[in-house]
Amino acid sequence: MRALSLFARPRSVGPGGRSRRAAESAHDSKGMEEFVESGSYVAVVLALLGGALGLPIPEEVVLLTSGALAKKGITRWWIGLLVCYSGVLVADTALYLAARKLGNAALSTRRFGALLPPARRAKLRRLFETRGPMVILFARHVPGVRAATFALAGIDRYPLRRFLFWDGLGILSSVTIVFTLGHVFAGELDVVRDRLADVQGLLLAG
Asked: What is the distance between the alpha carbons of residues 57 and 53, in angstroms, rounded to a whole number?
């Protein structure tokens, strides 16, 4: 946990910063709900895949919205949850495979170069050496390191079967938690998203 604090970024805690984050959160959640509702299950998978490949679509917003739509009866909760499991696994695997196919050449692209500057690559590689697959399991729960970890696993050709196993294990907990929060607190998605961001920030700094 302590080693992952190396990737933490300063976060605004002043009134102005919280107000801006709340406004952005409200806008993101409303727009995502409209998009997901327009295409239901297919839209969920597309949104998750797009987010993994670089579009500004936070996974947590998609999962919270999916849970809320199930609560409202727009989708069936058990189908929605299964679609979220599948969509997240597809998205994570797509990111891993894209990085694996490109290899070290991926680092010269804008997307992967931004995710994995030299200092972060070195720190992640040390974590893989000392913590092994637990890095993948932990990263699955923390947006701040998730994409970078999965991309590096692909670039360094971490075994696909092991990646899928540990990522799938993490998905069972992370997706269930966020989807359930969206279902239970369907009318307060913006507040829940902010609280999730706070918890994830503590994990990064812990």
From this structure: 10
Nearest Cα to 171, choosing from 137, 134, 198? 137
Q: How far apart are CA 203 and CA 206, in angstroms?
A: 5
Closest CA to 115 of 7, 11, 24, 4: 7
Interatomic CA distance for residues 142 and 200, integer angstroms: 6
CA angle 167–153–114, rounded 5-degree value: 110
Instruction: Report the alpha-carbon distance of residue 176 to residue 141 in Å, rounded.
Output: 11
Count CA atoms closer than 13 A to 47's CA, side-chain side: 28
88: closest CA among 192, 149, 176, 188? 176
Hey, CA dihedral for 145, 12, 191, 42, is it positive or negative?
negative
Q: pTM for this one?
A: 0.82
**In the prediction, which pLDDT does 143 show?**
87
Q: Which two tokens stand for residue 96?
A: 């891993």
CA dist 55 to 72, 85, 127, Å?
27, 20, 27
Question: Tokens 């993948």, residue?
Answer: 136
Residue 172 near residue 81, CB atoms below 8 Å: no
- Average pLDDT for runs of 10 along the chain of length 206: 37 48 53 65 91 90 92 92 97 98 96 95 96 96 92 98 98 97 93 86 70
What is residue 198's predicted lDDT score, i.e. its pLDDT?
A: 85
| Closest C-alpha among 129, 116, 189, 186 to residue 155 | 116
- Confidence at residue 13, expressed as pLDDT on a 0 to 100 scale: 44
